[in-house]
């Protein structure tokens, strides 16, 4: 583990690190999406609507896996409503429909137990910058406000705003710009080995992986079980 007292900025992943969420992007219930479809004369069952959105995500994910370019919820909406309507949807419909679906999915985002206290402790001596892959640029900020912890975070860098998702080098450079300090003074913390451990290290940034058990290629000294363990593991 890098020496204590070295880090002036903590670069924190969001989904899976600060909050629990459903990575499948399939909401448990879809009341907002169902209401939206009814109001716009789109006759579709809840299961069929969810399957259509899931397929739209899958199509765009396949493209992003190669390019690492981030796509927006509006793009997902265009693909989904193209299927549901059998024609190209109006942009306003795609955007509003995407917001409805995001509202349903977002209800499953929950704070990691002890997250607020951990951020408060970490932020007493360091700047906290969230660096997240997301298809909606305001989703992280909106969620932080809803959880009442937005005042504990100094900046948010999203893949949609940067245009590239982790582990593309551009998002780490954007994070460093937001941090405002040399990369040697930053520590990246997150739950994805590829995005939050290997990616930052390739960019010259120290990193720690959030994982409940040992991970091949990650020394145990570079691993914590949860974000709440971080204040006790690294002095900032």
From TrEMBL:
Q: Does the keyword Nucleotide-binding apply?
A: no
Offer one Pfam family short name for this entry.
Answer: Hydrolase
Q: Which Gene3D superfamilies match?
A: HAD superfamily/HAD-like
- One GO MF term: hydrolase activity
The UniProt keyword set, sorted, is: Hydrolase
**Record's protein name:** Putative hydrolase of the HAD superfamily
């Amino acid at each position: 583990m890098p020496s204590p007292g070295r880090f002036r900025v903590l670069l924190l992943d969001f989904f899976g690190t600060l909050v629990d969420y459903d990575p499948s992007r399939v909401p448990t219930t879809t009341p907002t999406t169902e209401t939206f479809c009814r109001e716009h004369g789109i006759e579709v069952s809840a299961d069929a609507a969810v399957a259509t959105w899931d397929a739209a995500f899958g199509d765009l994910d396949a493209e992003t896996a190669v390019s690492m370019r981030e796509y927006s919820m509006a793009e997902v909406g265009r693909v989904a409503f193209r299927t549901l309507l059998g024609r190209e949807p109006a942009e306003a419909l795609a955007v509003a429909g995407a917001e409805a679906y995001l509202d349903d999915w977002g209800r499953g985002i929950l704070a990691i137990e002890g997250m607020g206290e951990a951020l408060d402790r970490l932020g007493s001596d360091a700047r906290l910058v969230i660096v997240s892959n997301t298809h909606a640029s305001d989703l992280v900020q909106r969620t932080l406000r809803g959880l009442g912890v937005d005042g504990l975070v100094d900046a948010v860098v999203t893949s949609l705003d940067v245009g590239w998702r982790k582990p593309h080098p551009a998002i780490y450079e954007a994070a460093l710009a937001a941090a405002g300090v040399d990369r040697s003074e930053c520590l990246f913390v997150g739950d994805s080995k590829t995005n939050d451990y290997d990616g930052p290290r390739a960019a010259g940034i120290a990193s720690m992986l959030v994982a409940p058990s040992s991970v091949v290629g990650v020394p145990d000294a570079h691993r914590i079980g949860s974000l709440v363990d971080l204040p006790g593991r690294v002095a900032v």
